[in-house]
Amino acid sequence: EGVSSRARILDVVYNATSNELVRTKALVKNCIVSVDGAPFKNYYARHYGIDIDAARKAKAGKITSDKKKKSSAVAKYNVNKASAVLKRKWTFRRKTHKIEKALED
Fold it and tell me: 79 vs 13, 36, 38, 71, CA distance in Å?
């Protein structure tokens, strides 16, 4: 499954050419960057009806609300407020897909 969307670049992590380019955060070819995961999580919630953050917290057993996180640029999609038609679509889509191991951890 291939999906493309705009993502915010957070930081330049590694560059094989020079550490100077990492320090100045220069975007050049073949540099490794970290991107914001909020647009992907929002798409995943809208398309499959699975909230990745809630599933991760439930799996770890850490359902606590100590501090509110900073609001991200992408509004969070509420999975619980969905129509019956949309829930049927989600169940059909969940039959054929698997969550990658990296996302589960």
Answer: 33, 21, 15, 18
Please give the C-alpha separations between residue 101 and each of 19, 98, 104, in angstroms, as whole numbers: 31, 9, 5
Split at pLDDT 50, 70, 90, the class of 16 is very high
Least confident of 13-17, 21-25, 101-105: 101-105
Across the chain, the runs of DSSP E, i.e. the strands, are 9-14, 32-35
Q: Are the C-beta atoms of residues 42 and 74 closer than 8 Å to each other?
A: yes
pLDDT tens-place string over residues 19-39: 999 999 999 999 999 999 888
Place of tokens 């590694």: 14
Q: Are 14 and 31 in contact (CB under 8 A)?
A: yes
Q: Please, are residues 32 and 13 in contact by the beta-carbon 8 Å criterion?
A: yes
